[in-house]
Structures are given as C-alpha cells and as structure tokens.
Amino acid sequence: MTLSELNPQPVWRNFAMLCAHPRSSGNERLLRDHLVSWAETRGLAAELDSGGNLIIRKRATPGMEERVGVVLQAHLDMVCQKNQGHPHDFSVDPIRPLVERGWVRADGTTLGADNGMGVAVALAVLEATDIPHGPLEVLFTLDEEAGMTGARTLQPGLLQGRLMFNLDTEDWGELYVGCAGGVDVTVRRHVNRDPASVAFVMREISVTGLKGGHSGCDIHLERANAIRLLARLLQDARKQTDLRLVNLRGGSLRNALPREAFAVVAVPACDENILDALAQVAQDQYRLEYSGVDEGIKVSIEDHGSGTVVRAADTQAVIDLLLALPHGVRRWSHVIPGVVETSNNLGVVSLNGELEVTLMVRSLTESGADELAMSIEACARLAEATAVRSGAYPGWVPDLSSRALQVAQGVYRAKFGLDPAIKVIHAGLECGLIGAKYPRIEMVSFGPVIRDAHSPDERVEVESVKHFWELLIGCLAAVPQV
C-alpha cells in the first residue's frame, strides 16, 4: 500500500507532502514558506511572528462564531537519524514512507511522524469545508527538537484562542496534562596530544546496532547507550595494554538515545590482537546484558590510518568521565505512579581538538533537574573539565480543571465508549513555554501511536491516526460557547 490508499485521506495526503519537504531542526523555513503560500491560496490568513513561527487563522464556520477560540499546535521540524551507511541526505532528500502491516515507517531513516502527524491533521482541518469549528488558529513552531527555539521566541499577544490542543504526544488513548522540564549540560575538557609512536598501530572500534529512541519517552526502557558501552570496552582494554585515544564520536542528538559510537585508538603493535578478542567478548556480554531489550548490539574492529594520540593520563580521564557521568532514570515520581520524575541522557560525545559531551536532563521538578545537573557538574570538576548549562525550559504544570481537558474527555467517552487515561509525560512539550507566554490558555495534548521516535525504527500506527483525527474534529465541534 501507499499513503494515498490510507484513511483519513486528507491527513495522509498532507503527511506525504511533509515527507517530500526536508525539515530538520533549524532548516524548516522552506517548508514554512511553502505553507504560507498553501494557506494564502485557500484564503487563510498566515502570519509569521518575530521568531519565525507560523500562525494560520481560519474563521469560524457559520453558527459557531460564539464558540471559544481554539489553537491547534504542532512543530514543523523532525529528528533526523539514519542507519549506518545509509545514503540519505536530510538536507535535500525526501523521506520515503513505507506501509507495512498496519504501520507506516521510513526506509532506513526517521519517519517524522513526530510531529508530522500533528502538522498533517492541523492542515487537514484548515483545508476542510465540512468540519464545524469556532474561531481557529494553528500555531506551527520551529526548532522544537533542537531546543524549543520557536516556543521560546513566540511573541505574546498574537494568539487569541483560549483552548489549546497540542498534537505532539505518542500514545493513543491517553490525554496529557503535564510534562517534564529540562536543561542541557555541555561538558568540555582539554586533552594533550603527542605524535604517534611507530611502535603503535591504530584501530577503529565501533559499537553499533542499538535501538536508540526518544530520550524522554523511552528512557525508562533501559536500552543500551552506545557511548557507555564503548567507554566500558576502552576501559577493559586499558587494563591490558597502553591504549591511547586518537578520536571519539558517539550519538548525534541530545534528545536521542545514542545508537552508535566510534573510537580510533592506538595500541602497541605487540598487543593489537587484544582488541579483537575483547570486541568479541564485549559483544557477547552486552547482548546477554540487554537480552530482550537491545539484542542487536555489534562490536567491531577495523584498521585505521594515522593521527596524533592523546596522552595516557588524558586518555584515562576521558574514559573515566564517560563512565562516571549519569545516564538513565535518576528517580521515579512518588506523586504520579509509573512516571519518571528525573532522568539524564548521555547523548553526544566528540573528541577531536578537545572532548565535548552533551547531556540532556529532564525532570518534573525544578529541584530534581538542578540536583542532577549539579551531579554532572561535580563529575566534570573531578575530571578537570568544565560544565555549562543551557537551554533550560519549564515543565507544564497539570491543570485537571482545564476546559480543554474536559472537552477531550467528553468527546473520547462519547466516540469510543471508554475513559481516556489522564497522564503526565516525561518528555518535553512546548506547552510549558507557551503557557508562560499565554497564561490564560487551557491546554491538553494527545496524538496517535508512535513508536521508537528519534530512531530509524520510528513508526506510526495507521488505525490510531484515524482515531486521532476523529477525536480532534469531535473536540472542535464540542468546544463550548464563550
């Protein structure tokens, strides 16, 4: 099957259009400008705010003018991840969606259902002529995945709606009323280098084949972190030979669990076989440890060319730091059972001129985020490194009296005969930042079933998209009068 054969057809047609437009974080402007033209050809008012966010307005359908104004909100960018060796260029190539057994996925890359499905349903509402709704505004933000830049720069005073449906969650049957806040921490350390000795040979160690995933939605699944596995192997090798680092790289985004990590190392020529033996032992050990969770782990060794080597003391300091930095769930919530309160993702590492490590802390509480960030800073000091916080964003405090929640609950019960689950999500949503600019807006978030977001295994369930669409148009019709 193809997307054109799926229902609801207007939603999938718009999603196919999104797949045809490259939209990595920071490079959404061509898509945004296309949507400005798209809106104008349909007689819809389109406006860009000072931060580059797009607001499209649509008049109420006849007889609905006195309903409370609604804002639909989604972000235009997507996380760009691909399998090792895949030729896809996210700056120019379209996403290639595939329909398989009730799911849509991409061919070796992220799909962009996060948050493309939210954008697609909003566009389908905007172009429809047979969906009743009150005054409607659609807010498309930029750069959500890389730092929520669009929500941060959103101008106050532009949005008139009092109810907001955020379309950026990934579990059908659940209505979200709160989310974690977060902060990025970047650790840097200088390393000293020497020319490579002729008595040493160079090898590249690769740790690949991990599932990865979303650092908020999937952190509790305890999948493997490629950076941490690589650091363990490097430390095991250091116990047996005078291994020196040449360069190091792992992970690609602060909010994606690292799927791959690579290190070029120098070892004495007389010990070159040690790495091959350790790689096999490590692969077997890691697969056993992550049996049922992350079973595709692969560890390999290849020859490599020349380069300067990091001195022994600095090599050890780098490895120690990567082993000491926290990763995973720090604490579960005692207030909201089954929800992660605080976590950290050891997301990206690079070692060229200097070591740089990027981490993303998430927490439902400001104090929890601060405590974990302080732990990272302490590790950095012990390693004679620096740690700098940036990109902090607030959480979204739950409001169970929200009229947006009440509307969504009522429509869900009427359409599907069940009570939806009311939840708080550990991932970051833009609702906290938007709510700070527009404190009178009442919000709820919902979406279809999306699995393995932020990884090449990302997929969206077709049937849940239909339900997502039905819930949204039902909510628009059920919005109360002013």
Report a brief summary of the structure.
It contains twelve helices and 25 strands. The protein has helices spanning 9-19, 29-41, 113-127, 144-147, 149-153, 226-240, 272-289, 312-324, 366-382, 403-416, 431-437, 462-478; strands spanning 45-48, 54-58, 70-75, 97-100, 103-106, 136-141, 163-166, 174-179, 181-190, 193-194, 200-208, 213-214, 244-250, 256-257, 261-268, 298-303, 309-310, 328-332, 340-351, 354-363, 386-393, 421-425, 442-445, 450-451, 459-461. It is elongated, with a radius of gyration of 24 Å.
List the helices and strands and how they pair.
Elements: H1 9-19, H2 29-41, E1 45-48, E2 54-58, E3 70-75, E4 97-100, E5 103-106, H3 113-127, E6 136-141, H4 144-147, H5 149-153, E7 163-166, E8 174-179, E9 181-190, E10 193-194, E11 200-208, E12 213-214, H6 226-240, E13 244-250, E14 256-257, E15 261-268, H7 272-289, E16 298-303, E17 309-310, H8 312-324, E18 328-332, E19 340-351, E20 354-363, H9 366-382, E21 386-393, H10 403-416, E22 421-425, H11 431-437, E23 442-445, E24 450-451, E25 459-461, H12 462-478
Parallel strand pairs: 3-6, 3-7, 7-23, 8-22
Antiparallel strand pairs: 1-2, 2-6, 4-5, 5-25, 9-20, 9-21, 10-17, 11-15, 11-16, 12-14, 13-15, 13-19, 18-19, 19-20, 24-25
Helix pairs in contact: 1-3, 6-7, 6-8, 10-12
List the main descriptive attributes of the protein structure presented here:
482 residues, alpha+beta, Aminopeptidase, 2 domains, nine-stranded antiparallel sheet, six-stranded mixed sheet, elongated
